[in-house]
Amino acid sequence: MPGSMRIPGSLRALFDRRRTERISTEVANDSEAIDFVVVTDISTDGAKLVAPVPLSVGRKVSLKLPLLEPLEGTIVWVSSRLAGCRFLAPLHPALLRVIVAAAQDQRAQRQAG
Q1: 37-to-14, 19, 20, 48, 72 alpha-carbon distances in Å
Q2: Which of 70, 82, 66 has its CA nearest to residue 30?
Q3: Sign, CA torsion 65/69/70/76
Q4: Residues with Cβ within 8 Å of residue 109, at least 6 apart in sequence
């Protein structure tokens, strides 16, 4: 298309890695304490969380995401109630797309119900 800008493949891959669907989920730590958090951004390597109380850097967490066994990670940064979680093992990009689609389906069902 004339006048349209083409996004280089390497940059497109970066955009495609991140998904911004909000996912309400549970997070547990080593002591089995459960907190409810919202995942506001997720990639193959980690996620941004919004928690009701601040989480601490270095905290080992286990996220319960749609269609998966609990996903292990570590809190790597904190800013007030926001926290960054790095997954211990990266997600496959296709699995990330499935998680986001499942979260979108769950949200649509809640809104319809």
Answers
A1: 25, 17, 15, 10, 15
A2: 70
A3: negative
A4: none
CATH numbers and ranges of domains, the chain: 16-104 (2.40.10.220)
Residue 106, φ and ψ in degrees, nearest 5: -60, -40
46-50 vs 82-87, strand pairing mode: antiparallel
Contacts 24+ apart (CB under 8 A), 73-79: 73/46, 73/47, 76/46, 78/54
Supply 27's token pair. 């997070």
| Cβ atoms of residues 27 and 48 within 8 Å | no
From first to last of its 113 residues, what are the pLDDT tens digits of the chain? 444 444 344 434 433 444 455 666 666 666 656 678 888 888 999 999 988 888 899 988 888 877 788 889 999 999 998 999 999 999 999 988 888 888 777 777 777 86
Is the full-model pTM beyond 0.85? no
